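Postdoc handover notes: sequence design on the structure in folder B. Input tokens:
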């Protein structure tokens, strides 16, 4: 029987690939046959994921990238392409919330530096990675670019800079999809809801909301119709599908795997 999600011969880079959603997506791509480079700042985590990829019978590579550095992003994408022998798939997964103090994220009194840093972390760095990856895809007239959004990419209520950046990813994706389509490149946003990763710190969220960590978690669970927190592996299968020829007609779209978040 023909495999629906077949990525044999494809080469992928997943930023923020050392843990959580990034790790799950990298492994899902590998399960479908892709060779995968994973990138972040943490060598140990990356090496562990690269080993898991190799155990699936394909090639895995670790690439150190600090996504707050323009220069490291560009150099890291090129390094991944050299190790892989090209680049077909880019998943802009790196992101999160930067704050020395949760009060710095107060929408009515937002720290200006924190605002700019969070915009860079969740939007601008995706541009730099995409900018570096596009020449490889344009040359071969095939490519997949998937940026990881958020439930707050489509709704209000999240941290101000984070929500602004994730909304920006949607505009970035739709605009780029028009320009990239003639080159055989599909561009989409994949939006998780509340997901069980280390980036979701219930203590910090509780402090921002003025409630306990347990109450913050209960509030998050109440925001989707399944009344639960999504697991990272649930994002992996959708990422692999979007990266495959089975989704060749899917571009410029915002696709959610979020348990029905705020619908």
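Designed sequence:
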């Amino acid at each position: 029987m023909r495999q629906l999600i077949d990525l044999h011969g494809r080469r992928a880079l997943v930023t923020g690939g050392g843990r959580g959603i990034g790790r799950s997506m990298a492994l899902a791509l590998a399960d479908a046959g892709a060779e995968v480079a994973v990138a972040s700042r943490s060598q140990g985590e990356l090496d562990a994921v690269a080993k898991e990829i190799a155990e699936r019978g394909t090639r895995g590579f670790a690439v150190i990238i600090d996504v707050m550095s323009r220069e490291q992003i560009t150099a890291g994408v090129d390094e991944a392409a050299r190790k892989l022998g090209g680049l077909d798939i880019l998943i802009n997964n790196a992101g999160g919330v930067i704050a020395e103090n949760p009060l710095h994220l107060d929408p009515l009194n937002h720290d200006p530096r924190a605002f700019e840093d969070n915009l860079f972390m969740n939007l601008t760095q995706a541009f730099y990675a995409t900018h570096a990856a596009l020449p490889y895809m344009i040359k071969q007239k095939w490519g997949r670019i998937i940026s990881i959004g958020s439930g707050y990419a489509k709704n209000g209520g999240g941290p101000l800079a984070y929500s602004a950046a994730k909304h920006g990813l949607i505009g970035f994706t739709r605009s780029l999809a028009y320009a990239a389509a003639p080159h055989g490149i599909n561009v989409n946003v994949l939006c998780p809801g509340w997901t069980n990763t280390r980036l979701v710190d219930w203590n910090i969220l509780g402090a921002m909301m003025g409630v306990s960590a347990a109450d913050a978690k209960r509030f998050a669970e109440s925001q989707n119709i399944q009344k639960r927190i999504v697991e990272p592996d649930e994002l992996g299968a959708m990422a692999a599908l979007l990266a495959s020829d089975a989704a060749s007609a899917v571009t410029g779209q915002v696709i959610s795997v979020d348990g029905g978040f705020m619908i």
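Context for whoever picks this up: The first strand starts at residue 11 and ends at 15. Don't rerun without checking with the PI first.
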